[in-house]
Specification:
315 residues; alpha+beta; four-stranded parallel beta sheet; 8 helices
Length: 315
Amino acid sequence: MRVMLVTNPFATFTTPEGRDALANTLDSRFQVDVEHTAHRGHAGELGARAAAEGYDAVVVHGGDGSVNEVANGILGAPDSPTRSPSSLPALAVVPGGSANVFARALGISRDPLIATAQLMSMIEDRARRSISLGHTLGRWFLFNAGMGMDAIVVRQMEDQRHRGKKATASRYFRTTLGSFFRPSITPPTFTVEVPEREPIEGVRFGFVSNTGPWTYLGTRRIQTNPGTDFDSGLGIFAATSVSVPRNLVLGSRLLAGTDPKARHLFRDDDVEWVTFTSPEPADVQMDGDYLGLHRRLEFGYRRDVLDVVAPPAGG
């Protein structure tokens, strides 16, 4: 079997020794080509090459941003001609980032050694699982995309990483709290539209999920849309207030793992499409990567579009 190993040497929790060990372990069973990403977008180029050259699988050792790029490279743009998932390389992930939301949502261990052992036998047995993906701005997203406050937090985290600080769970938590408490941060309001409902006006932050959880705080799962998974439609979570007291109550429910409900929150765990519209440019993030400022996002999804190397759903 031909396997491409894509590693991100700049990912938060990868090391040269770990990358070499992973490459040697895979090479003991498969024909492996090792590729190191060198610039933003490089992982997408490698994913596209793997699809064009008929690789059986692409193993990504890095964070969620690298995995997103490879998936987009394998699939091409959402409006491009579709190929059967079985004719494309299967996507496998050995966690190497700070959150690793996608891998953990698939049931892959956050420990790279255990994850490698999990994947080896599944790749060898050609064990594949087809999953749905969301899309917006001409790109696929694996687990969520958002506009407003959560995207502002992602932007601030990227700024801190550029200054040499690691993107740890505690830093994310502190940055999130600081964003809500800082009066100088005022995300623009926008409108959310979903099928069979009047538009929701005055939304201050919102995100669309392709699966759960939305993220992890260490080992704790943060479930914004508990009924959303890789086999359902999209989940929408939209809040019309950035009030600290109101969102502290909502945040405590999320941390406690209880059903997230609040008067200022609109939530639906299974919709066909979502549209965000802002009168002024607003911050946008996708799978934890900052995408800049946009006025309009049109979200859709496609069922069974990508094959992944992962345990069966619920397994």
